[in-house]
Amino acid sequence: MNKAELVSAISKRVDVPASTVDSVINGLQEELVEAITRGDKVAVPGLLTVERSQRSARTGRNPQTGESIEIAAAHTAKVTAGSNLKKAAAAVPVS
Fold this sequence. Notes:
- The protein is of the alpha+beta class.
- The protein has helices at 3-14, 18-38, 83-90, and strands at 42-44, 48-55, 58-61, 68-71, 74-81.
- It folds into two domains: 1-40; 44-86, IHF-like DNA-binding proteins (HU Protein, Chain A, Irregular), CATH 4.10.520.10.
């Protein structure tokens, strides 16, 4: 599902104009980016948690040449599924 499909589905589900839903999703995106930049954790209970985490510097290896390279420390965004998402995924049979 892409953004346009998501906006349409939410618009139909809650009977709100698509333009309003699109504005809310854009606002959510902007707020998540700002929160991660500040180092804040954003939690939507049952749905997801988004937070900034830090990856330590480490030594890696170039798979083509086998040469060792130093990989710098970095910040990453970590998204953790909430209980409702986990339950939904677990309910789907494995094929």
